[in-house]
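Hi there,

I know you've been waiting on this one. I reran it after we fixed the sequence typo, so this is the corrected version. Both the input and the resulting structure follow.
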Amino acid sequence: MVSNLETDAILTNDPGAARDVYIVRTGSANLASVAAALERIGATPILTSDPADVLLADRLVLPGVGSFGAAMSELTQRGLVSVLRERLSIGRSTLGICLGLQLLARASEESPGVTGLSVIDAVVRRLPTAPALRVPQMGWNLTEPRHSCRTLAGGYAYFANSYALPEIPKGWRGSTFAHGESNPVAAIEQGDGDRLVVATQFHPELSGRWGLDLIRRWVIGRPTVEAREHEGIDTHAEPIQRLAANAADASGVARC
């Protein structure tokens, strides 16, 4: 059996993840935590606002904390809207985080009249409110895959959001979370391997070992254990993913 210390050692400084990963400067506050998470798995984070980098980087993270309208304004001022649309249209490996997922949509109720990247023909909606429902959602919630996902796995993730996509878009695989009687989108994915687009409403960089392992799978372009077992691929050599799938709890955030 692999101990927690051995698990952390496999997750951090993984030789297979030793790749340059560009992070878009969106003016958001979570760039440092995203960079730190990439370093923990062995990748090299590079902050950029250069349109050429955004278009051509092998792997790119689109993070986001703040409002839909402000983020789109920032991307427009930096000349990044058209290159992001082109990048995503050809499926070049991209990881959208929190607001980074919402920006893929056509629009958001948060910022009426503002056009998003329109990679997804959908509108981001405010989470339903009720006496027992707290908005914004701040804290841990269970994510559950709704398709035969290759990168996304079920587990507890850390959320900080008032808005979300109400349903998984057509043509995408995805997972959801429970919010009262609704099940908004927790994450979506499209493609595979080195052509893999993943976008999460939650913060994987703040979601313990489980979140780090999701980032790691995206960086190395390798499917989850569940997907590999379905394909008949031997998974015994990689115990880390089976352990990490059950490792997310409130204590994990302190290790991020």
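Quick highlight: Residues 1-10, 226-256 have pLDDT under 50 and may be disordered.

Best,
R. S.
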